[in-house]
Amino acid sequence: WWYHRFLRCFVPGIFLDLTFSPSGRLGFSSLLVLQDKWEQIVGQDSTLEIFQHITLMTLDTIMKCAFSHEGSVQLDRKYKSYIQAVEDLNDLVFSRVRNIFHQNDIIYRVSSNGCRANSACKLAHDHTDQVIKSRRSQLQDEEELEKLKKKRRLDFLDILLFARMENGKGLSDKDLRAEVDTFMFEGHDTTASGISWIFYALATNPEHQQRCRKEIQSLLGDGASITWNDLDKMPYTTMCIKEALRIYPPVPGVSRELSSPVTFPDGRSLPKGIHVMLSFYGLHHNPNVWQNPEVFDPSRFAPGSSRHSHSFLPFSGGARNCIGKQFAMNELKVAVALTLLRFELLPDPTRVPIPIPRIVLKSKNGIHLHLKKLQ
Ligand code: HEM
Asked: What compartments host this protein (predicted)?
């Protein structure tokens, strides 16, 4: 419990501390690498499958912000196998939930899907082990330790490495890896889904895209720099981001084991101990909760508009809601603002994405967009 309370205070700060220069300017090197790559590609062929590229970019961002990683994940081919493992696990977890025989651990372990899941887990664990090992060995270095002491705040991995439990012992390797795994996964696949679907929503709603671009141009000019304060000064863009998160929630649902029975207003009830799935996708598309739910209408999130406190839950609700919400919203805003300054986003009518629920919301056929470089 103490650990989660502690992280909830700490996470909103990691984006601030690790990507801001003392002048308050935001660092966005991962995004620049992506945009430069896009600029080169759209010179040859203007249609792109954006999800894969964005996933590498968000992995790059979380590796830099939370794990002190130096170098670029996007330029180093070795990270592709980690991304592939996460993609396989996304599919495998989903197909396991839908197969009654695979609920049994022994049957699952000997099935072909179980074997695939095992090797994907091993690959993902090797990646996180490598990240921990490399930071541990950096910290053996006096100079690196000095740098660390001067930091206003430690990053996520450093906190875990220095953490002491009540008994004075550090986290075990297994516990450490579990925490790093969670952050590595939650910190990049969700934001990749969020950014990709927001770009698609803006591509299919050009009038809203243009209004956001105008707002960002008047705030940032040519976008050579962006500051922490700017992030609170893009109300229309924020409304569009929220509306895209409503229609395409990056985490389409969560599951819970009931610790006590739940009784509904009509008298039906669910017993303690069963597993229930809660669909945010279903909630966000429910016509009893949202009028014309399929229509992209950012005015639903205009300042002063009213709605039920639990009608919009992209980051879940209650005690176990998303720790990285603030971090994620900042990353989404920076990605949208700087991309709209450099590119016009247009849909590819021959390849309309088909949303599929996995651990994060994916598209069966990828997300293909035309990108037009702006002068
Ligand atoms: C658009 C991006 C994101 C969305 C939509 C999102 C959504 C969610 C949701 C719905 C949950 C609840 C899961 C459950 O109840 O089973 C969750 C939990 C969590 N998220 Fe996020 N998330 C995002 C980005 C991030 C980022 C960037 C980080 C890390 C920096 C992060 C870290 C976490 C962690 C650690 C938890 C577990 C919290 C706990 O169990 O107490 N998330 N997220």
From this structure: Endoplasmic reticulum membrane
Contacts of 124 (CB under 8 A, 6+ apart): 82, 85, 86, 89, 181, 185
Q: Which of helix, strand or coil describes residue 49?
A: strand
Is 322 marked as binding a ligand? yes
For ligand 1, residues with CB inside 6 Å are 4, 11, 182-183, 186-187, 190-191, 194, 250-251, 254, 314-316, 320, 322-324, 327-328
Query: Which protein residue has the closest C-alpha to ligand 1 atom 21?
Result: 322
Residue 64 CA, distance from chain mean position: 14
In angstroms, rounded to a whole number, what is the distance separating the alpha carbons of residues 283 and 247? 10
Torsion (CA) 126, 128, 132, 134 in degrees, nearest 10: 60
What share of residues in the chain are helix, strand, coil (percent, to 5)? Answer: 60, 10, 30
Across the 375 residues of the chain, what is the mean pLDDT of every consecutive 10-residue run? 48 47 62 91 83 94 84 82 89 90 94 95 90 84 75 78 76 86 90 98 98 96 85 97 98 94 94 94 97 97 93 94 93 95 95 94 96 89
Dig out the tokens for 248 from the structure: 């395409």
Task: Give φ, ψ of 359 to 5 degrees.
Answer: -60, -40
φ, ψ at 200 (rounded to 5°): -65, -45
Amino acid at 103: Q
Domain at 2-260+273-373: CATH code: 1.10.630.10
Which residue type is seen at 365?
A: N
Nearest CA among 335, 332, 351, 341 for reference residue 48? 351
Look at the pTM and tell me if it is higher than 0.70: yes
Of 45, 20, 5, 85, the C-alpha closest to 229 is: 20
- Whether the CA torsion 81, 87, 89, 92 is positive or negative: it is negative
